[in-house]
Fold each of these.
Amino acid sequence: MRMQTQPTASHFINGKYVEDTAGTPIEVIYPATGEVIATVHAATPAIIEQALEAAKTAQAGWAAMSGTERGRILRRAADIMRDRNHDLSILETFDTGKPYQETSVVDATSGADALEYFGGMAATLTGEHIQLGEDWVYTRREALGVCVGIGAWNYPTQIACWKGAPALACGNSVIFKPSETTPLCALKVAEILVEAGLPAGLYNVVQGLGEVGAALVTDPRVDKVSLTGSVPTGRKVYAAAAEGMKHVTMELGGKSPMIVFEDADIENAVSGAILGNFYSSGQVCSNGTRVFVHKDIKEAFLTRLSERLADAKIGDPMDPETSFGPMVSKQQMDIALGYIEKGRAEGARIVYGGEAIEGDGFYMQPCVFADVTDDMTIAREEIFGPVMAVLDFEDEADVMARANDTEFGLAAGVFTRDLTRAHRVVAGFEAGTCFINSYNDAPVEAPFGGVKASGVGRENSKAAIEHYSQVKSVYVRMGDVEAPF
Ligand code: NAD
């Protein structure tokens, strides 16, 4: 029997599901078949108001609890998520079309990692003591208040947790707006948090398009905005948040380089290029979509890559054997196919795939272009689809300059057996997250985020605490106060 995909109601506010059918209907489409599997309604002003009131009201009591108490609830939620991994993974596959082979090991599990990690860290959050002769200063690490999270559609459960877990650990309340394309998973995160003991009003989910996000960002009750999305949306949201002098985290797009030197282990480099271009059908922000391959090994690399791509199992994402699923939407597939057309027109050579696949659902083949030059559109713009651009190089200094010649700076990778070169190259990368002989790992223990147009702030790790809390300095005078008159 098929899983129930229609949620109890569209929104989750103040500890329970709420509906307002006056909001614009949003159809949820299963990307593998094109079928409508649920309908939710965009938040009306009344729903947005309810969420803001609930979040504002609940926050002070939560911040007043001890970190140990807050953390215990988050860790309990992590355990529930792991226990329900199978069902949550199926729902994530319905929401996004990503193969169960991926969702069962990446999505709810990485969400649970964040809840567990920040749950454990909650009790360790402290200020410091600064002695100044007899006098002293102490700092209090305090919550920001109400945090708004706005998500992209590629990792809906993970994004809901990566924003929610550190925010809650620090004593904030959260209003999360999922992407309109994938509204289902965050509701489950909210349900689980409440089941784990989270008091009502602290993690709310409201649905809607960009305008709902924009209404939240501009509300004076909101203290922080964390967006995962594209650079153009990031510019708008950052500007709106700046107007209200709010804290921001911006996790935006990229066009990341991966450099494969002539001494690289070719099999590992091909694996890295596959992970960094075709996982989640290429819909990953940190993907290394500009693959610079040294000219001496280029043909060997392309041959092995094509052989490995022929082993991809494209098909029903619920089949555990399937390793390459559909695109999230027809629109996203058309965008990727449009870039493939541009690549051909601008003179790049297709080495593999690049065609839409006939039938139901939004399927296309993975695509590899060779002979790509730096000025081609497919080498400059984020595609957010399974389109790899292979560029040639000969000289390290030259390839470094080319790798950094982009407005983006999310990630970058290098494959080489030369230890000193590997570290020299990553030191030179203008990117927030780098990989040596690997690609796209994102453990919760490590900071994740971009430089340049790819973002501001860091998610995960201890670094996220700085973005969900603030310090208050308290000066304590032990003697008399001296005044000039
Ligand atoms: P998008 O920018 O179209 O939308 C992101 C979210 O912002 C959605 O929830 C959308 O409704 C909302 N939004 C749109 N306009 C808004 C506005 N004016 N005010 C407030 N909210 C608004 O992005 P997308 O198509 O959903 O996702 C793909 C993009 O996300 C890619 O560029 C990708 O690189 C990026 N991404 C980045 C990361 C990261 O961690 N750096 C992770 C995943 C995806």
Amino acid sequence: MSIEDVDLDGPRPDEVRIRVAASGLCHSDYHFIVGDMPHPLPVVLGHEASGIVEAVGENVRHVKVGDAVVSCISTYCGECTQCQTGHNYRCDDKPARAPAIGEARLSQAGKPVHQFGQLGGFAEEMLIHAHSVSRIPEDMPLDVACLLGCAVLTGVGAAIERAKVRPGDMVAVIGCGGVGLNVIQGARLAGASRIIAVDLNPAKLELAKVFGATDLVAGGDGVVEQVRELTKGGVDYAFEVIGLAPTVRQAFMMLRKGGAAVMVGVPKFGSDISIPAMPFLQQEVSLISSMMGSVPFQVAIPRYAQLYLEGRLNLDSLVSQRIALTDINKGYEQLAAGSVARSVITFEGVGRA
Ligand code: APR
Ligand code: ZN
């Protein structure tokens, strides 16, 4: 990534312009940086951002200039069947903002510049659809609030909204990065009795304890046996939060009868997963997935912010370091090396960040 100047158009009727306060370095952008997934270029990456509304288009009602907001990639139309049945995170008709030539929302010398997820949060400003932002409480610190838009929503939502973990359930979480740690704290909030954290990296396991893990298991071979042993027969829910076929299979294999494996990690483009057929039938287990928390983000983000303000959701320990935009490539190298949970880019002097 290089840092360059980009021209922004004014907000159209359904758009908002945001002064970015903070932006998290999520693993999903990394898939595009290294080319696991294709993306048209040039592109402004970044999607986990917080900021202050600077300008709104004439149709925008739910936020106004000066509001503190968090961006989310789950832009919705509000009118398709998925939106109308309460599943706007699965919107069939995301408001199209792909810039036609000459109509670029962002541009350089008149040439269109793309926005990852129609957002582009690694920047001082974002020009985005109004259905991509959630308002947050005024007293919410913006340098941690950005994480609500992706890692927290995705992780906590997978546990609470998708799996619907109940008090007393036993849970395993494979992959304890920025997202996995939030699955762990979602399961804790839901009252899980055992939360088994699995990761290759011992430092991540130590961090998992801070978020509520009751047992720690080193990733790799033998994980399934260890979890089955610890729980005397398997877990009710196993979450895969990496995006790899072998670990999805591990999640599936560590379930007790009637349990569900929840795929949260984003797999490599075009890859397959496989599960053994006989236990699938005989043990009435499920393999399900969860995207962006499986909940309308404008409902969940303010709730999760409130839980933070009440001291029930830990966001502070997610942030390993605050960095300047100029250190973004180094931040991603550290993410790839596994030495940080989340790095957050902060822009001085915006809101309360
Ligand atoms: N077994 C156990 N843990 C593993 C394994 C494995 N085979 N391979 C990797 N891990 C661990 C890493 O050590 C790291 O702690 O998985 C974790 C992944 O964390 P991050 O790189 O911080 O990724 P995160 O941002 O949490 O996202 C995880 O969810 O939203 C998606 O696109 C995202 O696919 C990514 C996944
Ligand atoms: Zn993300």
Amino acid sequence: MTGSPIGCHALVWTGDFDAAGITSSIDRTKAAGFDLIEFPLMEPESFDSTVARRALQDAGLSATASLGLPEHADVSSDDPEVVAAGAKLLRTALERTAEMGGTVLCGVLYGSMRKHLAPMSDRGRANSIEAIHRLADQAQALGVRLSLEVVNRYESNLLNTGRDALRFLTGVDHPSVSVHLDTYHMNIEESDLFQPFLDTGERLGYVHIGESHRGYLGTGSVDFDSAFRALDRIGYTGPIVFESFSSAVVSATLSNTLGIWRNLWTDSDDLGAHANRFIRDHIAAVRTIELH
Ligand code: MN
């Protein structure tokens, strides 16, 4: 984890990503002490990457982007037209990411982010693998890496565990694609918060740090001690990004999909500064075990 950029998801600050929202979320991420901001690109067409690039340079902050595909643009669909719509949306998000100087596009890129009412079909899985391989070729040409987020069963029927993601990556077979693990989802689906990091090892490319209720870190049931020990053990150096949601900050396209109905915090600046300290303190503490 030494050298890992520590980041913050932009929905900590605002749900409205017009020019003012982009600029203020960058400034507040910087003020809270982070190195990096992750922008949700649920609607990449309308994201002003020029404004973002300039504000990021002014703040001296790096950036990544994430999204979860909608049902009508799902690359894991059996319907070729829906798959094509998904590929188009992903391509636009990738271009916006590259334009703002972003290094990684992550999240649920491989399917629609929602509660599915049936298991993934063989055709759907093959369609998803093919779409991600194509996107990875485009990403490589643009200097962006892809990371596929493992999420809980209510948000995907394809990648629910680290092992699911490793099997999927074998199918994709591309050096620009890695696994994205999130402690909130791991706390629901995995056996513990240690072994999945060891299993993914050098295939791990992105980490979300979220509490069991997605509020203040350290006030829920996620075993962060194990998670940070595991990240240190595998020598992880990729982004570590705080993700938290509250009904106090609403994005119609993301908050509703994720079921953010509760008000878990109101003071974004306090929440962000606390998370930045929490993550850096855990990294520093784990290092002392390895050093002595
Ligand atoms: Mn996440």
